[in-house]
Amino acid sequence: MEAGIVGLPNVGKSTLFNALTKAGALAANYPFATIEPNVGIVPIPDKRLDQITKYIPPQKVVPAALKLVDIAGIVKGASVGEGLGNKFLSHIREVDAILQVVRCFTKAPGGEDILHVAGSVDPMRDIDIIATELILADLQTVDGALGKAERAAKSGKPEDVARFEVLKRLQPVLGAGKPARSAKFDDPEQLRQLKQLGLITGKRVLYVMNVDEDDLQGQGEACMKVRAHAAAEGSEVVAVCAKIESELATMPDGERQEMLEALGLSEPALESVAHATYRLLGLQSYFTAGEKEVRAWTVPVGATAPQAAGVIHTDFEKGFIRVEVYSLADLEKYKSEKAIKEAGKMRVEGKDYVMKDGDICHFLFNV
Description:
By secondary structure, the protein is α/β, with parallel strands linked by helices.
């Protein structure tokens, strides 16, 4: 799962990115990698992994991962060469979702003013600026590809015809200042061509409200406007104080939990962002567990057992026979897989089984 972090300068975007990736690096036995200066891969915390390992001690634990791509601050006019943001937009064409950091805080940690690139704190204006620049960038992509696609469509090949139809429908949508995701496509080939275009505004958006320390739940007037906007367009929203998250990221687990409780927070930002991104993209996790490793796997809600097996390896999907499934509640009640089987709670499911969040699975396949 990949997400691109965008926002205007001085909204706390890089502070949040650094806090999230640092928090990931501190997680015990969890992998962390910085691929390049503006890309990090962080584990998604999942308490269910800890619960499973109480009963099935593995050699290693592998959580699901979130790849974060930090894009240079986008400014008004980026689509026509202003600032640096336009040079980095290509980095987020392959991500699954956009995390837009929106400034809702007014003061710096020390109480001093932080200048806003537009002169004042107005999250709705900021959202509009970013949306406009991303739409214009996508419009350039569509305009540049349309002529070639039209010529190719004359061949009659289904994929070429579908690509031309997609571009032709998108051009007036983007030209009217609307994101590509507002255009609905049902044809499978057109959907495939749409994905290949990698349009930024075709991706779902999670608005990350960077809030003041006295509004950690994001209930202030500015935040409520962002919440209303997100709800109206079917996006997700989460409130985060990047300054506090920077402090939490450097603390040992015990101290971090104490500070969270003192602040009235149920989870650190990495968990909040990951959970919101899962909801946004319609994702869920299932687990495999054994002596070698306990691992979380990410699949879309509604995925069948063969599709879930294919996430592990394509051969698992091709040669799928059946899956043995049980729940974490079963494991906690019976304490071992052997006892689960003896109690008749180990289910055997076939190709039509629809995966449930938290399933613990053993796939049987033959290639």
